[in-house]
Specification:
Elements lengths: L3 H14 L3 E7 L18 H18 L1 H5 L4 E7 L2 H11 L5 E4 L2 H4 L8 H8 L4 E4 L13 E5 L4 H17 L2 E8 L16 H23 L9 E7 L2 H11 L4 E6 L6 H5 L2 H8 L4 E5 L1
Parallel strand pairs: 1-2, 3-4, 5-6, 5-8, 6-7, 8-9
Antiparallel strand pairs: 4-9
Helix pairs in contact: 4-6, 9-11
């Protein structure tokens, strides 16, 4: 298993929502035919294949034995095939409400590039995906008591916020909503206004003030008046850097982000903020597609 922490979190969420867990382990084919070479008889070593599948099934069930003992229903599935495709197809056929995937940690997670299993699942899954760093690298608690949701006021981020609110309500957690203002320069530091021509400095200062004021006003409309567990922040800089910084400062247990679209430009879209956050976060990251 990539991460026992992922199993623990899947069990916690299943208990929280009264759900059942489908534990899927995908085994790569023993022999993959190479293009241009004669096909290999798929029945040549069925006994060995069956024995291997029984072993993987037993190991997967053993990994979830504590979850089963706690009373959460678990369905163990072992498939032979291409991991990303089988995960996506299984999630669609169940249908799954959430995919939980363990990662390999800060160094191994650099493999989350185009073509990797995790990236394909994150980019193509129709349901939310929770990526979980291994316990050795995690800085979050098992239960979600501090939730951070990043919004840019797009439809997908509003969808993510709805989900984050539901999680906060179910877990009785504190929710922080963060919006990042990105400028044409790296911040901090901002350009020193006193070094600019007077007219330019005044225009820039007014523009900054107007954008920040507008963002704060829009965020205020997202906070229900009846709750004291929801707060909002406006940050300046690169979105993924600021999201990760706020998550570290607040010791967030999970980061929630929305991702756009399902077209040919998915790679470019996912390859920006969400991808950077998922790769570098030391707490679980929940991505939702709208």
């Amino acid at each position: 298993m990539a991460s026992t922490h992922a199993i623990d979190l899947a069990a916690h969420l299943a208990h929280l929502y009264g759900a059942r867990v489908s534990a899927l382990h995908v085994v790569a084919p023993t022999v993959t035919p190479y293009p241009g070479l004669p096909a290999i008889d798929p029945h040549a070593d069925q006994a060995a294949e069956a024995a291997g599948l029984r072993r993987f099934c037993s190991e997967t069930a053993r990994a979830f034995s504590g979850v089963i003992a706690a009373g959460t229903p678990v369905d163990v599935m072992v498939h032979v095939g291409e991991p990303a495709r089988d995960i996506l197809e299984s999630a669609a056929s169940l249908p799954a409400d959430l995919i939980v995937m363990g990662t390999h940690g800060l160094s191994g997670f650099e493999h989350l590039l185009l073509g990797s299993v995790a990236e394909k699942v994150l980019r193509k899954a129709a349901c939310p995906v929770l990526t979980v760093p291994p316990r050795a690298h995690a800085t979050s608690s098992l239960s979600f008591k501090r939730i951070l949701c990043a919004v840019d006021f797009s439809d997908c981020s509003m969808h993510a916020l709805t989900f984050a609110r539901s999680m906060a309500e179910e877990a009785r957690a504190a929710l922080t909503i963060v919006h990042v203002l990105e400028w044409p320069w790296e911040e901090p530091p901002a350009p020193r206004l006193e070094t600019l021509p007077e007219v330019q400095a005044f225009s820039l200062a007014m523009y900054r003030r107007e954008r920040e004021s507008d963002a704060k006003a829009r965020l205020a409309t997202l906070i229900p008046a009846a709750t004291g567990d929801t707060s909002a922040k406006v940050c300046h800089g690169k979105p993924y850097e600021q999201i990760l910084q706020v998550a570290a400062e607040e010791h967030s247990d999970v980061i929630v982000v929305g991702v756009r679209g399902r077209g040919a430009i998915d790679r470019a879209i996912f390859g920006s903020t969400a991808n950077h956050v998922v790769r570098a976060a030391t707490c679980p990251v929940l991505t939702l597609r709208k």
